[in-house]
Amino acid sequence: MASLPAPLSRALPNLLAQAETQKVGVESMKVAFVGLGVMGYPMARHLVGKGGHEVAVFNRTAEKSETWARENKGRKAATPREAAMGAEVVFMCVGNDDDVRSVVYGEDGILADLAPGAVLVDHTTASATLARELDEAARAKGCGFLDAPVSGGQAGAENGVLTVMVGGDEATFETVRPVLDSYSRMVGLMGPAGSGQLAKMMNQICIAGLVEGLSEALHFGQKAGLDLAKVVEVISKGAAGSWQMENRHKTMAEGRYDFGFAVEWMRKDLGICLDEARRNGATLPVTALVDQFYAEVETMGGRRWDTSSLLARLTR
Ligand SMILES: NC(=O)c1ccc[n+]([C@@H]2O[C@H](COP(=O)([O-])OP(=O)(O)OC[C@H]3O[C@@H](n4cnc5c(N)ncnc54)[C@H](OP(=O)(O)O)[C@@H]3O)[C@@H](O)[C@H]2O)c1
């Protein structure tokens, strides 16, 4: 291969670095990430590696933040407050509503020292009520808030290709959007505070019914003595095709349920959906039934199995 002229060769590393930054399209910012779990750990990593941001982290179990800081040349903080101090954007990805409140409020909480103008972004799958409460609390401090639950699972977080459903005001969204691109393939503003969580509820309602349908079809196919792989190869290209069918039929047929999103998390999410439906008057009969099916899976020892384990209660 012909060598490049010397000036171009010297400039190339800078040009490549510039192109990488332009791909993500964002200036380096001071950010914080609270909650380095299955999702948060790789998301925070992408903020450094892909986004080029200066990242401080807090995790309840300190070993994880120590390892993360070592691997990613970031700063580990002893409290959520210390992580958020001086940050322009603070991300959270913890378990449920109560976990979020425990890292946001109080003497050591994120809001204690959050600078006016900073934005708090919640990636936890939580209630819309909590999102509206946090929006008010952030506004009272002169800060912004976005509820931003994600879809795409562990693989989506590891590969930086999550889908993010955002609630909040447009100006705040536009400020944070380029940072979210560090670990996302699709980011959309769904409406005012709480709308991101409501969109995630729609997502989970779809998945609940869909996985039960797929489980029943595979169960039926097994009883009918069909070659499931052959059938799925054909029907997955038609109207019955889905991500779940393409990605899970094989492992479901083998009775393997260790692929990410756990039954206990799904039950938390379906509980949030059913609560919200009681408030807004929506009727969710299939979602309520599938929630009970997941309760049965839990009694079979499947709390940590993934959501495709609905088939297990049909084949036991
Ligand atoms: N996993 C998925 O496939 C997936 C997909 C989409 C959405 N989500 C949602 O994303 C959120 C996080 O899921 P995950 O799978 O990353 O969960 P995870 O692996 O269990 O991690 C939860 C994180 O939250 C921290 N945490 C929990 N309670 C806390 C508290 N009271 N105070 C401080 N920190 C607390 C944990 O700290 P420790 O390390 O100390 O335990 C850990 O860092 C959940 O809302 C989940 O529903 C998950």
Main sheet attributes: strand count, strand direction, barrel closure: 6 strands, parallel
Number of helices: 14
CATH topology of the largest domain: Rossmann fold
Number of strands: 9
Shape: globular
Proportion of helical residues:
40-55%
Under the CATH scheme, which architecture of the largest domain would be assigned?
A: 3-Layer(aba) Sandwich
Q: Give, in spatial order, the strands making up the sheet with the most strands.
A: 3-2-1-4-5-6
Count up the domains: 2
Which cofactor or ligand species appear? NADP nicotinamide-adenine-dinucleotide phosphate
Mean pLDDT figure: 93
Residue fraction in strands: 5-15%
Q: What structural class is derived from the secondary structure elements?
A: alpha/beta
Question: What order do the SSEs take from the amino end to the carboxyl end, as H and E?
Answer: HEHEHEHEHEHEEHEHEHHHHHH
Radius of gyration: 22 Å
CATH class of the largest domain: Alpha Beta
The CATH homologous superfamily of the largest domain is termed NAD(P)-binding Rossmann-like Domain
